[in-house]
Amino acid sequence: MNPDTPDSLIPYDEIVQEALRAVVGRVLGSIVTGGGMLPGTHHFYITFKTGAPGVSIPARLRERFPDEMTIVLQNKFWDLEVGDQGFSVSLTFNQVPAKLQIPFSAITAFVDPAVDFGLQFQAAVEELAPEAHEDAENDGPDGTDPDGAGDGSNVVSVDFGRKK
Asked: Residue 68, Cβ neighbours under 10 Å: how many?
């Protein structure tokens, strides 16, 4: 866009972000309707802002991940529920079960390394400099990318600039 282009009165960036987050909801919803099991080798890495409105996680996890957290839905998850505004899931962290409630608006990344698919989102909360924290690892096989496809070659990133 050139500097003479007027500001849009239509919030295209918000509309696109909302549509892409609906993809996450639809994928997770298909897992629920399919009996709660991931088909084939599919598994998901979901990154979200822990301080976003509507996020509900145990205090110990919020202390450990004060800004952002990545969860893995692969082998050890249960009680996956998907609604219009977000999802909830139970996972274990260091063999301690925890239920998380995550609105779609808090998600910043969704990746399915089994098929080299990924989406990145603009954060729906005020951007703050992320605080240092440990790598997110809920209990999984070994925490590695089993097929080595983590090169990001199929990641869709939508970032609309705004004139100020």
From this structure: 19
For residues 155 and 120, the answer to whether their CB atoms sit within 8 Å is: yes
* Chain segment 111-157, per-residue pLDDT in tens: 999 999 999 998 655 544 445 556 656 665 554 444 444 555 555 55
Residues in Cβ contact with 46 at an 8 Å cutoff, skipping those fewer than 6 apart: 24, 70, 71, 72, 73, 102, 107, 109, 110, 111
Nearest-angstrom CA–CA distance, 94 and 78 = 16
pTM score, two decimals? Answer: 0.73
Kindly give, in sequence order, each residue whose CB lies less than 8 Å from that of residue 97, ignoring residues fewer than 6 positions away: 90, 91
Higher per-residue confidence, 150 vs 27: 27
What architecture does CATH give domain 12-125?
A: Roll (2.30)
